[in-house]
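Exam revision sheet. Question 4 asks you to relate a sequence to its structure. Input first:
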Amino acid sequence: MHTLLLLLLSSFTPPPAAGLRVTFTNIKHAQGQIYVAVYDKSADYMDSNKAKSKRILPVSAKGSLECTFPELGPGTYAISCFHDVDGNGKLDTNFVGIPSEPYGASNNARPKFRAPNWEETRFELKNEGGTLSIRLEKW
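Answer key, structure tokens:
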């Protein structure tokens, strides 16, 4: 009887969240890594130490690369990323601070003369999960 009750209760448990699938496009160099940070709070945005989730993706081909975040449940998120082409572990910039390596953000936000902000990059992830495409570009 106890086992039957457990079976019945387990059938009413909602399925786990489907997570997020991100495709990075416009990869022009088959080398280095793509650094990805997912944020769930405006106050933490662009502080990689406070990211909800992070990935470092090895790049071995031009074109596109896919990454999943199955641990993300429904909520509001924003993504920032860059392609570390030379493999030095950081986003290289020129003498005035403009990125010299490809970078991107959710919603493909690309303001000129500043980094994208939370409002421009935030998106809603639903119970059934979701997909995003982020185009990597140089400034």
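Marking note for examiners. The first helix runs from residue 2 to 10.
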